[in-house]
Write a structure and sequence with these properties.
This protein is α+β, with helices and mostly antiparallel strands and 211 residues long. The chain has a single domain, classed as Chemotaxis protein chec (3-Layer(aba) Sandwich). The chain is built from 5 helices and 8 strands; from the N terminus they run H-E-E-E-H-H-E-E-H-E-E-E-H. Strands 1, 2, 3, 4, 5, 6, 7 and 8 form an 8-stranded antiparallel sheet that branches. Strand 2 and strand 3 form a beta hairpin. Helix 1 packs antiparallel against helix 3. The radius of gyration is 18 Å and the shape is globular.
């Protein structure tokens, strides 16, 4: 069950979608082709294990960015091996030693996460009128079981920071590459409180008589 009313959820979705539009413009420059980042809906709730079950196989990559400031939280970008490879094929030039390729691959994944998380964080900062920013992205690789344990441990480390926001995300590249990685967020309760305050303020403003 959502912990937000419909208008509150709509405001949260508008923040995510506006951030994605900004991120797509920035990432288009990195990929040197037009990129669209879209979401077909979001889920916001108190975190429980049923919201996060990894069915993907093989080696996975998880990139996280902590949110610092008036609202605390963390973003999570989860990619499969095939999604990583598609990203490398799209964004990286051929050639280079294995060591150089590995360094460039890690850099492009962190840059992708940084672009998306920074765009959404900036949009949330502006709309909710709070001072927040993202920390340096961190990347870990592991099996589905290892990544799931990492995420579950992260979400259950504090009862005040277990708001789960999942956005069903799709990346579409001009040169016919389509990716659908998981992009989700962990927020402190103060994120929900600020959404509610902002919607209440907007409703009060709309009820004011014309002067």
């Amino acid at each position: 069950m959502s912990i937000l009313t419909l208008p509150e959820k709509q405001l949260a979705q508008e923040i995510i979608e506006a951030g994605y539009v900004s991120a797509a413009r920035s990432f288009s420059g990195v990929a040197q082709q037009q990129v669209m980042i879209e979401t077909s809906g979001i889920t916001i709730s108190k975190f429980t294990e049923k919201y996060f079950s990894i069915k993907e196989k093989g080696n996975l990559t998880l990139i996280t960015t902590k949110i610092i400031g008036d609202i605390q939280g963390e973003s999570f970008l989860l990619l499969t091996e095939s999604e990583r490879q598609a990203m490398f094929n799209t964004c990286l030039p051929p050639g280079g030693s294995p060591e150089e390729r590995h360094t460039m691959q890690e850099a492009i994944l962190k840059e992708l996460d940084n672009i998306i998380s920074a765009a959404v964080i900036t949009e949330a900062s502006n709309v909710l009128q709070v001072n927040i920013y993202g920390d340096v992205p961190k990347l870990v690789e592991g099996t589905a079981e290892e990544i799931q344990l990492t995420v579950l441990s992260n979400f259950t480390d504090s009862v005040d920071s277990n708001i789960f926001l999942f956005a069903n995300t799709r990346f579409s590249f001009e040169q016919n590459t389509a990716l659908q990685p998981r992009f989700f967020w962990k927020f402190h309760q103060n994120f929900v409180d600020r959404i509610k305050e902002q919607v209440n303020t907007l409703h009060q403003y709309r009820r004011l008589p014309n002067v």
